[in-house]
Amino acid sequence: MGRFYRLFLVLFLLFGAELVTADLTELENKIIAIAERDKESAIALLARTVNINSGTMNHLGVKAVGEVFAEEFQHLGLTTTWHDMSEVNRAGHLFAETAGESGSRCLLLIGHLDTVFELDSPFQKFDRQGDHATGPGVNDMKGGDVVILYALKALKEVGVLDDLNLIVALIGDEEKSGSPKSISRYHLIEASKRCDIALGFEIATSLNAATVARRGSSGWRLDVTGKRAHSAGIFNDEVGSGAIFEAARILNQFHEQLTGEEYLTFNPGVILGGTDVDYDPSQNKGGTFGKTNVVSQSVVVHGGLRTISPAQEASARARMKAIAENNHLPKTSAQITFQDGYPSMPPTEGNMAVLANLSGVSVDLDQGEVVAFDPGKRGAADVSFVAGYVDVIDGVGAEGNGAHTLDESIDLATLPLLIQRAAILIHRLSTVEHY
Predict the structure, then answer these.
(1) Closest C-alpha among 409, 397, 356, 412 to residue 206
(2) What is the pLDDT at residue 12?
(3) Which of 28, 142, 334, 340 has the fewest CB atoms below 10 angstroms from its CB?
(4) pLDDT at 16
(5) Do 287 and 418 share a domain, yes or no?
(6) How many domains are contained in the chain?
């Protein structure tokens, strides 16, 4: 068990001990009944949106799904805005908000409209067998979007939605975000600056775990050069060792010196080497030319880096740079560059306090405690962009399996429970004096 994960459990016990769970109120019991009643309606909306292809690069499809949700939010009295993202070659984002009592606590509810399944995918349709359904984005994350919407529907019906201060952000390019992030995530970050708490409705890892920390994800590129010459002269003073041997030295030292640090991973996902290299990172492909009797002149390595905090990222980058740009093999040189991606979401006391409230709701619903999920088992997500501004947890969306695969599924039997839990949590976090 990792050091950070142990910290999560300690913090949970501390904050959980301070939280007093309450019997369900009359209002909360009404929410429970509404969510049970509306199960089939929620499933129908899920099927409708899943059957609209919204692969990230299908801009028309992403916007079409946004229009479906926009109409639903408008019926609830929320003000909706579509933020066009054509500047970064993406469809855009749907924001919806309701401004309740002035000065009341603001909650940011985060989902996304796009999926990993583009128009050419064989996986296109919602298919239901009882309480088991499959389909592109059925849990990641149109199921989570439906949880948000139907939680707000329940709050509207019991008469409290108009008093709450909420912003819903349904992002249109979560699966393949536009660059630069300063543009594609601008509206999300600005919304977080107006709020106090954020809830991410990505797929639930389980009913009894939620995410209080995520590792950040960034990129790195290693460019290595050697002296092109006849291979008969390799290793002599005039020719040296060649680019491929130098790349191998660098990668081996990365492995030896950085492997084993908790929550730090680095992966060289692409390598091309030879006499000439042509690599297009935007398309994730390239080509190379080389001969066995010619000393290699060029190598490109493109990789990813995952870290739990800005400090760990900075440390890893510094060590990788020192390895790559010093102590070269003869007649070689190398340069490493880094590309910013998704920031990390470190564990905080505020995040643990929000988790304790979620756990309290779950206990009151007779579903047991909810604990912190190990961040080493989750990837990056949009909640990471807001973590520096608000207390945040993620993974309170749909329950299912096989996200990003042709077997992606959702457990429809849990949908009413997740809607109940979300609605009650939103109401409690919005109204209690302390959380």
Answers:
(1) 397
(2) 46
(3) 340
(4) 44
(5) no
(6) 2
